Amino acid sequence: MENLVIIQEGRPITNSLLVAERFGKKHFHVLDAVKNLLSSHEKTGECYISATYVDSSGKENPMYIMNRDGFSLLVMGFTGKDALNFKFEFIEAFNQMEKLIQNGISMRVAAVEENIRRRYLLTKEMQDVNAQIAALMKRHETIKKEMHAIDTEDFAQLSLFPRYEAYQIKHRFPNRGKSLKHHN
Length: 184
Known about the structure:
Blueprint: E1 6-8, E2 11-15, H1 16-23, H2 27-40, E3 48-54, E4 60-66, H3 68-75, H4 81-158, H5 166-172, H6 177-183
Antiparallel strand pairs: 1-2, 2-4, 3-4
Helix pairs in contact: 1-2
């Protein structure tokens, strides 16, 4: 069953060449069987895509690409013990391939859901951090105002005492150096 079912555009498919090879039929007989199916019902057009391949001599030849339904319709007309065994094997190969695809989709959906959950938690945490930053910034402003008030009061008090030289006051209150000239 290896290499008989391939993935194309996320779907399991096969082609008339692989079917002919596996069933030991001439490719033109398989092509005729597909053409008969196509002419017998309009829905069969959904199962087969006309394509070409290049043979070993470099000649371009017709072939059909088919989905599981097209394969099933085609090989259900084949008979014999080998044909029946192959039908079961091939159906199992399609089923396994579909499970792999579904598991891959399920894993991607789970990953996206996990990312959505993580993003929600991070957004909530960011909102909490922003609220803390806002509270800290507010507290920072309050502390700055309190320190300014203390500095203003202490500067005014120290500048009244001759014991402190201007350079000492300036050293302790570097932001008050300009206003020191006015108090002396």
